[in-house]
Amino acid sequence: MYNRLLALRQQLRKAELQGFLVPHEDEHQCEYTPARANRLEWLTDFTGSAGLGVVTLARAALYVDGRYTLQARTQLDLKHYEILSLHEDKVEDWFLSTLKQGDRVGYDPWLHTQGFIEQMKRHLATRKIELLPLEMNPLDAVWDDRPAPDLHPVKPHKIEFSGEESQDKRARIAAQLQADGVEALVISSLDSIAWLLNLRGNDVANSPLILSYVILQKSGRAMFFVDPGQVSDDVRDFLGPKVTIKPYDQFTEAVRKLGAGGVKILVDPRKSHAAILDLLHQGGADIQEGDDPCQRLKACKNDVELAGMRQAHIRDGVALCKFLCWLGQAVATEEVTELSAAEKLEDFRRAQSFYQGPSFDTISGAGAHGAIIHYRASEQTNRPIGGDMLYLVDSGGQYLDGTTDVTRTIAIGQSTEEQRDRFTRVLKGHISVARARFPVGRSGAHLDTLARRSLWDVGLDYDHGTGHGVGCYLGVHEGPQSISQRGFEVALEPGMVLSNEPGFYKPGEYGIRIENLMAVQPSHFEDEERSMNIFETLTFVPIDTRLINAHMMTSTEITWLNIYHAQVREKIAPFLEGKELAWLHRATQSIMAM
Asked: Are 265 and 315 within one domain?
């Protein structure tokens, strides 16, 4: 790893640069990137799904959020890298403390948003440090074994799953473009493109996405920039005559020409890389910065999508229940490891109809590994599951009709009083969010404290958001909706799907997380004086009652849990038999108030 850092620094010297930015993101700002775009992982060995590397000729650092602090410490060479917080430590301050007046920092304009670059430029200019876009990425020049593009056939996402034809989606957005006097919309977010065109692919790990760009015109016509070899005649017929397929590498020139004559072009600066805005400026466009309209429309699932999500979660619940039944017996009779457990869970999911693959790499954490929020087991770290410990398994599936994400914490052997206390506090927070009734127009930030209150009561907390948006056979992490301390901008609307996943993590000992997915629904209680929303729980998997201290639960919380477990039995039992059915009945027995 250090040799790679030295090689990159040599390239910086050749280019007369004193610093360089290495983001996790690719040209499409993807969370999960193709192997060819894993520049940060290649340089640092860090495998998390969010992070930013900064390199100078003498120092290097990695910025991560709270989910990855422990993971980064185990994966990085701490002799050569500092670990800093994405949310608490400013990247520009690190450069200001490291470089001197007149130094130059390079960046790849295809990998950073315009907003981030403008912020960096303003701060670095206070010390007369230049931030320069580079035509060639110096890291790519030293990445000798960089993987070739791994492209796959494009597939139609049929109306029985999407619930709305692509031409109707395009017409809705085109009408808004016309009303706003906008000539065209440039889209680089792969989930927006998949949703808008009703297409799915397999170019990105764990997400059914296609490496592509789209330019949507106010007429409703679209230019789809993709490798033509990925698109069959059937897909061309599916798209229809108003979608023109163009080679992926023609996008740059098309954007440059798009703004000729000073026409107004809509671009989302938070979703588009700086290179797109630079090209539009060069072409003379009147750039209209605004939200990608696909994102909000995509977030609010229609009735067909919600029905599909419900069915996908029942099948996923069957797979999880089969797995948990197997796990309880296997750990007592054979050697089970983090990796073998994850493989067994995948086997159970693979047997379900419409299953397309995992929605993310399964987090299978035994004991202390459960405290690493986004832990990924490997041959080097693989640990047996057994003895007395907590086992945390966070996993999800991609189905043609929906995407799932569920976490359960399981008692293996005997648990401690402290572990039961922490588990119960996490459960109380989970129930508080699941039961929330909140005014229309409120955001997830207004609900985040509900999940944390019981932990805060005893001076505890967790360093991640309480909930993220989830797509429908799309990304398992979807914006713009969230339940988090920073999620004030976006109101929660009916049809949005979010996770509910409070947790607690004791480094070196254990981790706890309880996660279900929920859909926002309008409330219809008779006593409401204003319009309200509620959550519909979509996930149906038992919560381990052996870890609950019932003395800490209110009667309302116990009633919620008992009703939830009755619903799990009702929905999952028809698909189980024998020992698995018997296990389900035991796992969902009512608990009594103490």
From this structure: no
